[in-house]
Amino acid sequence: MNVTVVGSINIDTVAVTDKYPKRGQTIFGNKIEYLPGGKGANQATAVARLGKSANMIGAIGNDIYGDKLVDSLKESNVNTYFIKRSDSLATGTAIITIDQTAENTMLVLKGANEDLNINDVENAFNKIHDSEVLLVQMEVPQDTVIRAMQLAKEKGMYVILDPAPAEGITIKALDYADIVTPNRQETYYMLGIDVVDIDNALMAAETFENMGIKNSIIKMGDKGSVVYQSGEWEYIPSISVEAVDSVGAGDAFAGALACAITNGCDLVSAAHFATAVGALKVTKLGAQMGIPTIDEVNDFCKKKGLTHCYLKESSV
Predict the structure, then answer these.
(1) CB 223, CB 210: distance < 8 Å
(2) Which Gene3D superfamilies does the entry link to (predicted)?
(3) Which residues are annotated as a binding site for substrate?
(4) Most buried among 107, 232, 271, 295, by the most CB within 10 A?
(5) Is 0.85 topped by the overall pTM?
(6) Is residue 99 domain-resident?
(7) Which tens digits make up the pLDDT trace of 98-118?
(8) How far apart are the first and last CA of the chain?
């Protein structure tokens, strides 16, 4: 069994600096990197590096960046058969600035991601017969995302909606999701609730339940997360690490969650595993290049005295 990801594929232009420039100001940064990214590609990479088969459905341009991104996915053993080459749009680009606190700002130019259409996902799903989980985000057209979710439900797949970025969210997607996993910004954008603590996270989860989605993981950054299932909930604390780059942490979390669910873990155990993977990701630069392998996760958990339900080896 495997995981199918429908989402964006981008080249990330990453500038590292001690502090952000003020509006109209010019300052000197520390370094720049050109790295593979895109929320969909990041999540597919996480799935593959954690030991599961991953299908990537997305679109790139007919350009050198598209070639680089496909090669990167193949190196991580992601199935790239369903990636479309756009004849009219260039490969998507994210311009990212990271400061000394590992916080980031991001400007995304969708490019070829906008060329992923309903026919593309329908053609792909006609050839996919062994997926248990679908992962979707909101960096490709909304109609395409919703159609993918509909097709997944028809096949009996478990649908995880990572409603990111906030600007791309459509509430209609909640109709087809088995679970939604928003962070603080996305929760505020959708519900107007600022999840600064457990009480507010529970309020958000209950609001989602009233909207028809019974399962949610409300992420509060370094304050941990709340796993909510039909009125029952559990708090998952964050894991303290020395952060280098927070870009892609949510994608690593989503990919890990999908892997754990595919492996038969319950949702709380899956969230603990995903939290460990997300924490380890922020210790490395690169949304995609910083995603750990399952062996790295096992070593990390062993050093931290953590256990998790998703094991490649019995080393934890």
Answers:
(1) no
(2) 3.40.1190.20
(3) 10-12, 38-42, 139, 251
(4) 271
(5) yes
(6) no
(7) 888 888 888 989 999 999 999
(8) 24
